[in-house]
UniProtKB/TrEMBL annotation:
InterPro entries (alphabetical): Nitroreductase-like, Nitroreductase/BluB
Domain of life: Bacteria
Protein name as annotated: Acg family FMN-binding oxidoreductase
PANTHER family xref list: NAD(P)H NITROREDUCTASE RV3131-RELATED (PTHR23026:SF123), NADPH NITROREDUCTASE (PTHR23026)
Alphabetical list of Gene3D superfamilies matching this protein: NADH Oxidase
């Protein structure tokens, strides 16, 4: 056995838990069993109001898989991913098998470094345009994971989708159950290992924009500021849908987010229309000609914001047997 492999696996798991998740719930668990790393959905951390089917939680687990595999690769370890490997157990989302050695690329190293800088930016972005070259890199990142990235301003869907975002935000703002669930996971102290702390919130908008960021993520202790009026929005899609597609969608999403970070771009999510009952079906229908839409991203240039904490990887990992390279 490679004596350094346990350390490499520890590093990969530390990267995995840096993945984004709704309200920073971190809905994953990992099991290390020799040359295999299992990625499980943690049902206790699925949001029952906002995400009753666990769709967003599976996206988050897929993002964790992306970080895990990428970090293995930059440490010279080749792996293979099987998504939803057991139809009988829908909570076993991925199986990462260590298969030997590999040589990482320069791009692999850039993206792995971005894992520890990527964060959700809930603050105003500048009016600086996202250039065609950066858009092409983000599309290529999605394509490289088997998905598609659609920029809404070039597809004719912008007005329809932003209207759905505003309607969903209004519905959620008046939904007592949703507001209670959000309150349980937000407004936490900066050192809290899960949930979203108040100092990661953005300021209130002094002029309403074409889309709304979550009102529940406003820090009203700081002065209102203008937000960009026409933010760049992009949709992450796969051709298929279902449990496996959700996990793959999360891997695509994370590759796009890491690429954006490496290019100096800020990102955040517009999850409201996926979560609100009155808008979910219309949002899916709006992208039906392209495939199945998994998430909406806001992309642009902005000042860095603080990264929020995560639970230690050891807290969410069970080791059945030490990591090892399988005999050939």
């Amino acid at each position: 056995m490679n004596v350094f492999l346990p350390l490499v696996v520890d590093q990969a798991l530390a990267a995995a838990v840096r993945a984004p998740s709704p309200q920073n719930t971190q809905p994953w668990r990992f099991v290390v069993d020799g040359p295999r790393i299992e990625v499980w959905l943690d049902r206790d951390r699925v949001l029952p109001v906002a995400d009753p089917a666990g769709r967003e939680a599976r996206l988050s687990c897929g993002a964790a898989v992306c970080n895990l595999v990428l970090t293995l690769r930059v440490n010279g370890v080749r792996s293979r991913v099987r998504i939803a490997p057991e139809a009988a157990d829908r909570d076993l989302l991925a199986l990462v098998s260590i298969e030997g050695n590999t040589r990482p690329s320069t791009l692999d190293r850039r993206l792995a470094e971005a894992v520890y800088r990527r964060h959700t930016n809930r603050r105003p972005l500048s009016d600086r345009a996202v250039p065609p070259s950066a858009r092409a890199l983000l599309r290529s990142a999605a394509l490289g994971e088997g998905g598609h990235l659609d920029f809404l301003d070039g597809s004719g869907r912008y007005a329809q989708v932003t209207a759905l975002v505003r309607r969903a935000e209004t519905e959620q703002a008046t939904d007592a159950d949703f507001r209670a669930e959000t309150a349980r996971w937000t407004g936490r102290a900066a050192e809290c290992p899960d949930g979203v702390p108040t100092d990661a919130f953005g300021p209130p908008a002094d002029i309403p924009g074409v889309v709304s960021l979550r009102a529940s993520h406003e820090n009203r202790s700081i002065p209102p500021r203008p937000f960009e009026q026409d933010p760049v929005l992009a949709a992450v899609l796969t051709r298929d849908q279902g449990v496996a597609a959700d996990v793959r969608g999360g891997m695509i999403m994370e590759r796009v987010l890491l690429t954006a970070t490496a290019e100096g771009l800020a990102t955040s999510f517009l999850s409201q229309p996926f979560e609100a009952r009155s808008t979910r079906a219309q949002l899916l229908a709006a992208f039906r000609d392209l495939g199945h839409v998994h998430t909406l991203l806001r992309v642009g240039y902005g000042l860095p914001t603080r990264m929020i904490a995560r639970r230690p990887a050891a807290e969410v990992t069970t080791v059945r047997s030490a990591p090892e390279v399988p005999a050939l």
